[in-house]
Design a protein that fits this description.
Mean pLDDT: 78
Strand order of the largest sheet: 1-2-5-6
Structural class: alpha/beta
Distance between the termini: 63 Å
Number of strands: 8
Shape: extended
Number of helices: 5
Order of helices and strands: HHHEHEEEEEHEE
Largest sheet: 4 strands, mixed
Strand content: 15-25%
Radius of gyration: 21 Å
């Protein structure tokens, strides 16, 4: 009754078969296993953060995906060497740890999106975490200067056309 419609003819060569069989034989076909570190290492070598740093670079923004933290020791080492900020995108790694610390707390700032496709959603908006109170106060001011009163904590809700704030 149903007819299969292939969007593209299968194109699996010998190398693909070798890697597929290696993954199956190892028992890992997910985000863990012996091939993952090898693959990530090859990508890192190819992309190489240090090659991307120019005199205009001000920050490194690592994105932790699917609960898998980036190599923050290396990223922080490079950031320190070049005097760069580290702003983590930790929206898809809530609860993940690297070296015993939660993602989003390993750099200068941690950003968490609450968009509909994220781990925790409010339909939109997000959160910024960090240890520099002056920087966080400045971020609060930039988001909603009409709500900022130098408070210790401000709860913001952005409904798309209006920002509501509650000052504690």
């Amino acid at each position: 009754m149903y007819k299969e419609i292939h969007l593209d003819a299968p194109n699996i060569g010998e190398l693909e078969k070798l890697y597929l069989n290696k993954a199956i034989d190892s028992g890992y076909i997910s985000s863990a296993g012996p091939s993952v570190s090898e693959f990530e290492g090859q990508c890192a070598d190819y992309l190489h953060i240090k090659k991307a740093v120019t005199e205009k670079t001000r920050a490194i923004i690592p994105v932790h995906l699917y609960g898998n933290p980036c190599n923050m020791n290396e990223i922080n080492r490079i950031a320190k060497k070049y005097n760069l900020y580290v702003i983590e995108d930790a929206a898809e790694s809530l609860g993940a740890k690297y070296g015993g610390k939660f993602t989003g707390t390993l750099g200068d700032l941690g950003c968490f999106s609450f968009n509909g496709n994220k781990t925790i959603t409010t339909g939109g908006g997000g959160m910024v975490a960090g240890g520099d109170v002056q920087r966080l106060d400045h971020i609060k001011f930039l988001i909603a200067p009409e709500c900022y009163k130098g408070s210790k904590a401000v709860l913001f809700a952005d409904t798309g056309n209006r920002i509501y704030c509650r000052i504690f």
